[in-house]
Amino acid sequence: MPSAKRDYYEVLGVGRDADEAALKKAYRKLAHQFHPDKNPGDKAAEEKFKEASEAYAVLSDADNRAKYDRFGHNGADFGFPGGFAAQGAYGVDIQSIFGDIFGDLFGGRGRRGAARGSDLRYHLEISFEEAAFGGAKDVTIPRLEDCATCSGSGVKPGTKPKVCSTCGGAGEIRVSQGFFSIARACPGCGGSGRIVENPCGDCQGRGQKEQERTLSVKVPPGVNEGTRLRFVGEGEGGRGGGPRGDLYVVLAIKAHPLFTRDEEQVLCEVPLSFPQAALGCALEVPTLDGKVQMKIPAGTQPGASFRLKGKGVPHLRGQGRGDQIVKVRVEVPKELNDEQRALLEKLAAAFGDEVHPEHRSFLDKVKELFG
Question: The pTM is what?
Fold first, then answer.
């Protein structure tokens, strides 16, 4: 190996004490960034991909890594006939060495057509109270399952598929990409390695049928609008023995006739008559826990807010609850009977020329502006 070759640990961007997981994570990142399929015609990217692949091939093998740590690039063949320069850098079977990595990065398809099932998204509407306190909801999800008639094979019972003549049953073909040989799914059979001449009549050869499944979705207390709940393995079934996808339940919260919400705080507006605001009163206020008595002090102004501790929404990731904010709205009657009008006129006469401090301040500002 030429002495100018970069250190393998430097290539992957890891320390010399990096474990297998750290090596794999670093390589995945570089392979995803510089893979020739993502950078067609980019020679610089191809060289970086080749360099990262070589580094990972050596460091991911315990024996080769020990040799490299001791000898560096010089004097070690890393277990490849002719050294890595002859076998690894020029023509190494990337798919066979890093199959699990490339399966994740470029489509999730392994050998023989196995493929992970699709993820599903389901929108679930819940009440304001269910969002606050949690609960369980049954949902029915339509999803693809293996066909019961053919057990997911797609083949008519009693018949067998033919071996694909394009790939010889391997399910993949090799394509040269610069210095590399990349394995790709066979176009003739879609990666399954076989041709179905007598498809199952129940699933039309697809091997899967849409079926409904009912799940109990547990909603945790304190969820917000748009909260996404993940259910691993509850998505559509995989093909060819592949794993199931996941189910994502996205929550929507129904509007409440009395309450709105700001994170863990519950907001509520209550009406007051003028006498209640002026004289004060004991007011019955609705909360998520039922009605409570709240004292309204005399002289309460329109728009004043009061706090009810611990009457809000539970914290999603912690203990305790938020508060409820009660805002008062002083209502002015639109119509008065004769008795009410007479009483208000008497009250107005009793005030005479007396001006409330806030009113006096407003009048002073008017005089300053307009003389």
Answer: 0.56
